[in-house]
Protein backbone atom coordinates (compact mmCIF):
# COMPACT_ATOMS: atom_id res chain seq x y z
CA UNK A 1 0.00 0.00 0.00
CA UNK A 2 1.41 3.35 -0.97
CA UNK A 3 0.43 6.41 1.02
CA UNK A 4 1.88 9.86 0.75
CA UNK A 5 1.48 12.27 3.64
CA UNK A 6 2.70 15.82 3.25
CA UNK A 7 3.38 17.12 6.70
CA UNK A 8 3.77 20.64 8.00
CA UNK A 9 4.40 21.96 11.49
CA UNK A 10 3.23 25.51 12.10
CA UNK A 11 5.50 27.64 14.27
CA UNK A 12 4.76 29.15 17.67
CA UNK A 13 6.40 32.54 17.49
CA UNK A 14 6.00 33.49 21.14
CA UNK A 15 5.99 31.71 24.51
CA UNK A 16 2.89 29.68 25.34
CA UNK A 17 1.78 29.22 21.75
CA UNK A 18 3.55 28.10 18.99
CA UNK A 19 -24.63 7.41 19.00
CA UNK A 20 -28.34 8.45 18.80
CA UNK A 21 -30.20 6.78 15.95
CA UNK A 22 -33.13 8.67 14.38
CA UNK A 23 -35.79 6.94 12.30
CA UNK A 24 -38.21 8.85 10.12
CA UNK A 25 -41.07 7.90 7.84
CA UNK A 26 -42.19 4.97 10.02
CA UNK A 27 -45.43 4.47 11.91
CA UNK A 28 -45.77 5.36 15.56
CA UNK A 29 -44.72 2.54 17.88
CA UNK A 30 -42.16 0.95 15.55
CA UNK A 31 -39.09 1.54 17.72
CA UNK A 32 -38.04 -2.10 17.35
CA UNK A 33 -37.96 -1.68 13.59
CA UNK A 34 -35.92 1.47 14.05
CA UNK A 35 -33.35 -0.35 16.14
CA UNK A 36 -33.14 -3.12 13.56
CA UNK A 37 -32.70 -0.58 10.78
CA UNK A 38 -29.93 1.08 12.78
CA UNK A 39 -28.07 -2.20 13.15
CA UNK A 40 -28.43 -2.87 9.44
CA UNK A 41 -26.98 0.53 8.65
CA UNK A 42 -24.01 -0.08 10.91
CA UNK A 43 -23.36 -3.49 9.35
CA UNK A 44 -23.53 -1.97 5.86
CA UNK A 45 -21.09 0.72 6.91
CA UNK A 46 -18.63 -1.84 8.29
CA UNK A 47 -18.85 -3.88 5.08
CA UNK A 48 -18.36 -0.75 2.99
CA UNK A 49 -15.29 0.28 4.96
CA UNK A 50 -13.83 -3.22 4.61
CA UNK A 51 -14.39 -3.16 0.82
CA UNK A 52 -12.79 0.26 0.58
CA UNK A 53 -9.83 -0.93 2.63
CA UNK A 54 -9.33 -3.88 0.28
CA UNK A 55 -9.59 -1.61 -2.78
CA UNK A 56 -7.21 0.85 -1.17
CA UNK A 57 -4.27 -1.54 -1.17
CA UNK A 58 -1.64 -0.08 -3.47
CA UNK A 59 -3.44 3.26 -3.78
CA UNK A 60 -1.71 6.56 -3.22
CA UNK A 61 -3.35 8.93 -0.73
CA UNK A 62 -1.97 12.36 -0.02
CA UNK A 63 -2.69 13.94 3.37
CA UNK A 64 -1.28 17.13 4.81
CA UNK A 65 -0.93 16.94 8.60
CA UNK A 66 0.23 19.63 11.00
CA UNK A 67 0.67 20.17 14.73
CA UNK A 68 0.45 23.32 16.83
CA UNK A 69 0.43 24.29 20.49
CA UNK A 70 -2.35 26.89 20.56
CA UNK A 71 -1.97 28.09 24.15
CA UNK A 72 -5.76 28.06 24.41
CA UNK A 73 -8.57 27.41 21.92
CA UNK A 74 -10.71 30.21 23.27
CA UNK A 75 -11.24 32.82 20.56
CA UNK A 76 -8.95 31.09 18.08
CA UNK A 77 -11.25 28.72 16.19
CA UNK A 78 -11.81 30.88 13.14
CA UNK A 79 -8.18 31.91 13.01
CA UNK A 80 -7.10 28.27 12.95
CA UNK A 81 -9.68 27.45 10.28
CA UNK A 82 -8.33 30.29 8.13
CA UNK A 83 -4.76 29.10 8.64
CA UNK A 84 -5.66 25.53 7.68
CA UNK A 85 -7.45 26.77 4.57
CA UNK A 86 -4.58 29.03 3.60
CA UNK A 87 -1.91 26.39 4.16
CA UNK A 88 -4.04 23.56 2.74
CA UNK A 89 -3.80 21.57 5.98
CA UNK A 90 -6.16 18.57 6.10
CA UNK A 91 -5.59 17.54 9.73
CA UNK A 92 -4.27 19.65 12.59
CA UNK A 93 -3.25 18.28 15.98
CA UNK A 94 -3.56 20.92 18.69
CA UNK A 95 -2.20 20.97 22.22
CA UNK A 96 -2.82 23.04 25.34
CA UNK A 97 -6.41 23.77 24.27
CA UNK A 98 -7.48 24.47 27.87
CA UNK A 99 -11.07 23.43 27.14
CA UNK A 100 -13.02 21.12 29.46
CA UNK A 101 -15.15 18.29 28.09
CA UNK A 102 -15.10 15.62 25.42
CA UNK A 103 -16.91 16.98 22.41
CA UNK A 104 -16.75 17.85 18.74
CA UNK A 105 -17.35 21.42 17.66
CA UNK A 106 -17.33 23.30 14.37
CA UNK A 107 -14.79 26.11 14.27
CA UNK A 108 -15.93 27.58 10.96
CA UNK A 109 -14.89 27.19 7.38
CA UNK A 110 -16.06 23.58 7.30
CA UNK A 111 -13.51 22.48 9.92
CA UNK A 112 -14.42 20.50 13.04
CA UNK A 113 -12.48 20.12 16.29
CA UNK A 114 -12.58 16.89 18.30
CA UNK A 115 -11.20 17.68 21.74
CA UNK A 116 -10.73 16.48 25.31
CA UNK A 117 -9.83 18.29 28.50
CA UNK A 118 -10.43 18.05 32.24
CA UNK A 119 -9.24 21.47 33.38
CA UNK A 120 -10.04 24.77 31.71
CA UNK A 121 -6.76 26.24 32.94
CA UNK A 122 -4.21 23.72 31.70
CA UNK A 123 -3.46 20.96 29.18
CA UNK A 124 -6.09 19.67 26.76
CA UNK A 125 -5.61 18.16 23.30
CA UNK A 126 -7.58 18.05 20.07
CA UNK A 127 -7.62 17.12 16.40
CA UNK A 128 -9.11 19.45 13.77
CA UNK A 129 -10.34 17.92 10.51
CA UNK A 130 -11.41 19.53 7.29
CA UNK A 131 -15.00 18.90 6.22
CA UNK A 132 -14.19 16.11 3.75
CA UNK A 133 -12.53 14.07 6.49
CA UNK A 134 -15.11 14.52 9.27
CA UNK A 135 -17.46 11.99 7.68
CA UNK A 136 -14.58 9.52 7.44
CA UNK A 137 -14.04 9.31 11.21
CA UNK A 138 -14.45 5.76 12.53
CA UNK A 139 -13.35 6.19 16.13
CA UNK A 140 -12.30 8.87 18.60
CA UNK A 141 -10.29 7.84 21.68
CA UNK A 142 -9.96 10.42 24.41
CA UNK A 143 -7.34 8.90 26.70
CA UNK A 144 -6.45 11.86 28.89
CA UNK A 145 -6.01 15.62 28.72
CA UNK A 146 -2.60 14.92 27.20
CA UNK A 147 -3.36 12.13 24.69
CA UNK A 148 -6.20 11.49 22.23
CA UNK A 149 -6.53 9.83 18.83
CA UNK A 150 -8.83 9.91 15.82
CA UNK A 151 -9.11 6.97 13.42
CA UNK A 152 -10.14 7.69 9.85
CA UNK A 153 -10.66 5.74 6.65
CA UNK A 154 -9.32 7.72 3.72
CA UNK A 155 -9.92 6.08 0.34
CA UNK A 156 -9.40 2.64 1.85
CA UNK A 157 -6.39 3.61 3.94
CA UNK A 158 -6.80 3.36 7.73
CA UNK A 159 -5.09 6.28 9.40
CA UNK A 160 -4.73 6.92 13.14
CA UNK A 161 -3.90 10.50 14.08
CA UNK A 162 -2.69 11.08 17.64
CA UNK A 163 -2.41 14.45 19.33
CA UNK A 164 -0.10 14.48 22.35
CA UNK A 165 1.13 17.04 24.87
CA UNK A 166 4.01 15.98 27.09
CA UNK A 167 4.59 17.40 30.59
CA UNK A 168 6.94 20.35 30.77
CA UNK A 169 10.54 20.10 31.90
CA UNK A 170 9.74 21.14 35.48
CA UNK A 171 7.05 18.50 36.04
CA UNK A 172 7.62 15.45 38.24
CA UNK A 173 9.25 12.44 36.59
CA UNK A 174 6.30 10.26 37.65
CA UNK A 175 3.95 12.45 35.59
CA UNK A 176 6.25 12.22 32.59
CA UNK A 177 6.49 8.43 32.80
CA UNK A 178 2.71 8.16 33.07
CA UNK A 179 2.30 10.26 29.92
CA UNK A 180 4.65 8.03 27.95
CA UNK A 181 2.90 4.88 29.20
CA UNK A 182 -0.41 6.30 27.92
CA UNK A 183 1.09 7.07 24.53
CA UNK A 184 2.68 3.61 24.37
CA UNK A 185 -0.71 1.98 24.99
CA UNK A 186 -2.43 4.00 22.25
CA UNK A 187 0.19 3.17 19.62
CA UNK A 188 0.36 -0.51 20.61
CA UNK A 189 -3.44 -0.80 20.22
CA UNK A 190 -3.27 0.10 16.52
CA UNK A 191 -3.15 -2.75 14.01
CA UNK A 192 0.21 -3.07 12.26
CA UNK A 193 -1.41 -2.66 8.84
CA UNK A 194 -2.77 0.79 9.71
CA UNK A 195 -1.00 4.12 9.51
CA UNK A 196 -0.05 6.05 12.63
CA UNK A 197 0.83 9.74 12.63
CA UNK A 198 1.56 11.61 15.85
CA UNK A 199 1.48 15.39 16.08
CA UNK A 200 2.85 16.49 19.43
CA UNK A 201 4.35 19.11 21.64
CA UNK A 202 6.83 16.88 23.46
CA UNK A 203 8.51 19.65 25.45
CA UNK A 204 11.89 18.08 24.75
CA UNK A 205 14.88 18.55 22.48
CA UNK A 206 15.99 15.49 20.50
CA UNK A 207 19.04 17.46 19.44
CA UNK A 208 21.13 17.65 16.32
CA UNK A 209 22.82 14.55 14.92
CA UNK A 210 21.86 10.88 15.10
CA UNK A 211 25.06 8.89 15.53
CA UNK A 212 23.50 6.33 17.89
CA UNK A 213 19.87 6.68 16.82
CA UNK A 214 19.81 6.41 13.04
CA UNK A 215 16.92 3.94 13.12
CA UNK A 216 14.51 6.52 14.57
CA UNK A 217 15.73 9.97 13.53
CA UNK A 218 17.69 11.94 10.99
CA UNK A 219 20.52 14.42 11.56
CA UNK A 220 18.56 17.64 11.39
CA UNK A 221 17.40 18.44 14.89
CA UNK A 222 18.13 21.60 16.87
CA UNK A 223 20.68 22.19 19.65
CA UNK A 224 21.58 19.53 22.20
CA UNK A 225 19.42 16.69 23.48
CA UNK A 226 17.95 16.95 26.97
CA UNK A 227 16.32 14.36 29.27
CA UNK A 228 12.88 14.98 27.80
CA UNK A 229 14.28 14.68 24.27
CA UNK A 230 15.82 11.34 25.18
CA UNK A 231 12.35 10.20 26.26
CA UNK A 232 11.10 11.04 22.74
CA UNK A 233 13.90 9.00 21.18
CA UNK A 234 13.36 6.07 23.59
CA UNK A 235 9.63 6.09 22.75
CA UNK A 236 10.40 6.05 19.03
CA UNK A 237 12.67 3.04 19.52
CA UNK A 238 10.11 1.12 21.61
CA UNK A 239 7.26 1.77 19.19
CA UNK A 240 9.33 1.56 15.98
CA UNK A 241 8.50 5.14 15.09
CA UNK A 242 10.52 7.82 13.32
CA UNK A 243 10.87 11.52 14.20
CA UNK A 244 9.98 12.98 10.80
CA UNK A 245 11.18 16.55 11.44
CA UNK A 246 14.77 15.43 11.66
CA UNK A 247 14.98 13.85 8.20
CA UNK A 248 14.63 17.04 6.17
CA UNK A 249 17.52 19.48 5.82
CA UNK A 250 15.82 22.85 6.11
CA UNK A 251 17.82 25.25 8.24
CA UNK A 252 15.15 27.95 8.28
CA UNK A 253 12.29 25.48 8.86
CA UNK A 254 13.42 23.59 11.99
CA UNK A 255 12.68 25.88 14.93
CA UNK A 256 9.20 25.42 16.42
CA UNK A 257 9.55 27.58 19.53
CA UNK A 258 11.13 30.95 20.23
CA UNK A 259 11.52 32.57 23.64
CA UNK A 260 13.82 35.29 24.90
CA UNK A 261 16.01 35.14 21.83
CA UNK A 262 16.42 31.38 22.14
CA UNK A 263 15.24 29.08 19.38
CA UNK A 264 14.49 25.40 19.81
CA UNK A 265 12.48 22.43 18.56
CA UNK A 266 9.86 20.87 20.85
CA UNK A 267 7.03 20.10 18.39
CA UNK A 268 7.27 16.95 16.32
CA UNK A 269 5.59 14.76 13.72
CA UNK A 270 6.18 11.01 14.14
CA UNK A 271 5.22 8.10 11.90
CA UNK A 272 5.89 4.39 11.90
CA UNK A 273 9.39 3.72 10.66
CA UNK A 274 8.14 1.26 8.04
CA UNK A 275 6.20 4.14 6.43
CA UNK A 276 9.05 6.64 6.48
CA UNK A 277 9.56 6.56 2.71
CA UNK A 278 5.97 7.75 2.28
CA UNK A 279 6.79 11.08 3.89
CA UNK A 280 7.43 13.66 1.21
CA UNK A 281 8.10 16.77 3.25
CA UNK A 282 8.20 18.12 6.79
CA UNK A 283 8.92 21.67 7.80
CA UNK A 284 8.07 24.49 10.16
CA UNK A 285 5.92 27.14 8.50
CA UNK A 286 7.49 30.35 9.71
CA UNK A 287 5.13 33.18 10.60
CA UNK A 288 2.11 30.96 11.22
CA UNK A 289 0.96 31.35 14.80
CA UNK A 290 -2.22 32.22 16.70
CA UNK A 291 -2.45 35.28 18.87
Tags for this model:
291 residues; alpha/beta; Deoxyribonuclease I, Chain A; seven-stranded mixed beta sheet; six-stranded mixed beta sheet; 15 strands; disordered N terminus
Average per-residue pLDDT, rounded, comes to 83
* N- and C-termini, Cα separation: 40 Å
Main sheet strand line-up = 4-5-6-3-2-1-15
List SSEs in N-to-C order.
Answer: EHEHEEEEHEEEHEHEEEEE
Which CATH first-tier class would you pick?
Alpha Beta
> How many beta-strand elements?
15
How many helical stretches? 5
- Unreliable sequence segments: 1-32
Assign the CATH superfamily. Endonuclease/exonuclease/phosphatase
CATH architecture: 4-Layer Sandwich
CATH third-level topology: Deoxyribonuclease I, Chain A
Number of domains as seen in the coordinates:
1
How many strands, what sense, and barrel or not for the largest sheet?
Answer: 7 strands, mixed
Shape: globular
Which percent band covers the strand fraction?
25-35%
Helix content: 10-25%
Taking Cα atoms only, what radius of gyration do you get, to the nearest Å? 20 Å
- Protein structure class: alpha/beta
Amino acid sequence: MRTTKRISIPDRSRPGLPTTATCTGGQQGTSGNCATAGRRRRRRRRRRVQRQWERGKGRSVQVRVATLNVGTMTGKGRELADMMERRKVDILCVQETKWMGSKARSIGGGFKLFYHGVDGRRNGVGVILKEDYVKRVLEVRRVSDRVMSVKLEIEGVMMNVISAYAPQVGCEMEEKKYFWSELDEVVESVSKDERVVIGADFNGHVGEGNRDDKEVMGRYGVNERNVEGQMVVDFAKRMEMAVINTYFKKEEHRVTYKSGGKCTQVDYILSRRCNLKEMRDCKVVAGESVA
